[in-house]
């Protein structure tokens, strides 16, 4: 399971890339989504690599993100009480593990698919260079967890 975060804005974006970002539901800066590790999504991520960053999210980080930034339809927070009453999961940690394993989608429990983050504390390293050159764009592997904690 990949966590994908949009870093750059819409100015000067080519039409095909803008459409790809829309399909990923990344309409604004600092929005994040969860996507499966399929070939289709990997192609979409490569197409938008100059505007987004992504990596493999772990269950612990995902649980923190859901607890702090997860929203239900109607903009209510996702809580353990809601999960106990309305789903088969007893806690946010169980839900995070199920999401990571691909057993369930966020929409199946009534959760919005987009997380609205703040910009990261202490800022980005650079929004025009890839991670391999000291910037913030592109694939970053397990390091996405650190960025997500900074932004949550």
What's the story with the biggest beta sheet?
5 strands, mixed
Beta-strand level of the residues, as a percent range? 5-15%
Count of runs of 4 or more consecutive helical residues: 6
Overall number of strands: 5
What is the structural class? alpha+beta
Can you write the helix and strand succession as a string? EHEHEHHHEEH
Order of strands across the widest beta sheet? Answer: 4-2-1-3-5
Task: Please state the overall shape, judged from the principal axes of the Cα atoms.
Answer: globular
Low-confidence stretches: none
* Overall pLDDT metric: 93
Calculate the terminal CA-CA distance, rounded to whole Å. Answer: 18 Å
Radius of gyration: 15 Å
Percent helix range: 25-40%
Architecture blueprint of SSEs:
Layout: E1 2-6, H1 15-23, E2 31-35, H2 39-47, E3 52-56, H3 59-69, H4 80-86, H5 92-101, E4 114-116, E5 138-139, H6 144-151
Parallel strand pairs: 3-5
Antiparallel strand pairs: 1-2, 1-3, 2-4
Please explain how this structure is put together.
The structure is a single chain. The chain is α+β, with helices and mostly antiparallel strands. Helix content is 36%, strand content 13%. It has six helices and five strands; from the N terminus they run E-H-E-H-E-H-H-H-E-E-H. Strands 4-2-1-3-5 form a five-stranded mixed sheet, sandwiched between helices. Helix 3 crosses helix 5. The longest helix is centred in the middle third of the chain and has 11 residues. The chain is globular, with a radius of gyration of 15 Å.
């Amino acid at each position: 399971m990949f966590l994908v975060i949009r870093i750059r804005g819409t100015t000067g974006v080519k039409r095909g890339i803008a459409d790809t970002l829309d399909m990923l539901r990344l309409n604004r800066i600092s929005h994040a989504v969860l996507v499966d590790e399929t070939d289709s999504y990997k192609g979409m991520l490569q197409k938008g690599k100059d505007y987004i960053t992504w990596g493999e999210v772990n269950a612990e980080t995902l649980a923190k993100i859901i607890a702090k930034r997860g929203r239900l339809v109607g903009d209510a927070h996702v809580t353990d009480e809601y999960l106990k009453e309305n789903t088969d999961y007893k806690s946010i940690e169980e839900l995070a593990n199920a999401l990571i394993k691909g057993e369930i989608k966020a929409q199946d429990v009534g959760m919005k698919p987009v997380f609205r983050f703040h910009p990261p504390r202490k800022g980005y390293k650079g929004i025009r260079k890839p991670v391999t050159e000291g910037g913030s764009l592109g694939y970053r592997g397990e390091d996405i967890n650190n960025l997500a904690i900074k932004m949550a």
